[in-house]
Amino acid sequence: MLETALHYSHYLLDKAVKTGDITIDATVGNGHDTLKLAHLVGSTGRVIGFDIQEQAIQTTLEKVIADGFKSQVDLHLSGHEEIGSLSLEDESVSAVVFNLGYLPRGDKSIVTTPATTLEAIQHSLPLLKKDGVLLIMVYYGHEGGRNEKDAVLSLVETLPQKDYNVLRYGFINQVNSPPFLLAVEKK
Ligand SMILES: C[S@@+](CC[C@H](N)C(=O)[O-])C[C@H]1O[C@@H](n2cnc3c(N)ncnc32)[C@H](O)[C@@H]1O
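That is the input. Now the predicted structure with S-adenosylmethionine docked in place:
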């Protein structure tokens, strides 16, 4: 009955993202969130995806084409810190999604890092429209993961309550650094 953090993040996307919306997948990986967002925004919407690994972008592009979503998905082989270079207006995006850590079934030494993750989150916040969400799935079991977790928590915990609702969702009795979700909603 209790949803996993990942399932709960998709429940929030279902509520926040409408046909025609602009959305961002900041860590494309194997493309699960990209495809989810592409389905939700439809052919009139847009999903802008970032990953630093060619393998991730290529695999996801193949899935996007196979599922008929090519028109609404724009994948960038570059770091999510480039979100600040997108020509998007402030308050124009309904969802930004991050999955921290390494690419499942990929090179476990290539992980998201505190400095670039924080930079990308800072660039993302002004882009959120009212009721838009910034969702961060925090995987932190790998080397350096705890530093990134603490840095991200320090940032989102101090976002002003008058502008954002910030929620942490995850199981607290599981072993092995269970992932949790941080959800930031623009008021
Ligand atoms: C946990 S995986 C993402 C999982 C993905 N959401 C999925 O559906 O499979 C994290 C991804 O972040 C990517 N990554 C690491 N640093 C990055 C950066 N600075 N900008 C964008 N992606 C980055 C990694 O290459 C990896 O593919």
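The chain has one domain: 5-186.
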